[in-house]
Amino acid sequence: MPTPHYQRVKAFMEKAGQDAPATVTIPNEKTRRLRASLILEEALETVQALGFEVVANGTRIGDHDFELQTRGAPDLEGVVDGCADISVVTIGTLVAFGVEDEPVLEEVDRANLRKFGPGSYVRKDGKWMKPPDWTPPDIRQFCPR
After folding, report:
1. Residue 51, CA atoms < 13 Å, CB-side half-sphere
2. At what angle do helices 76-96 and 29-49 cross, to 10 degrees?
């Protein structure tokens, strides 16, 4: 049985017109490319929030300073392992910061579902973009000082 978080993320993806198949499958290249891009964007934002930047060959790599080149056939086992590892390290980072995950995830999921208002659109690569009046998740409530 999927967790409530999984069900909320699936609802978001379905609203955004993204594939959310009911059975195990290897998605098409466009879908795989979108997922890879989103993972990189979020990973880079997190690295920057931790106080670092990613530099390759002396050049800073930012949110949209990369391109994805097709390397070969997808590896389903590697994808599942990588997603699980990302989840473990991101949830582990919350643990290291003393922040419980479920309330934060619920707040972020609610904010994501608010992205389907007037003025929202799909970016060329398939990422759903928030409308002008979108309000971000209230993360500050989980970060007492």
Report:
1. 0
2. 20
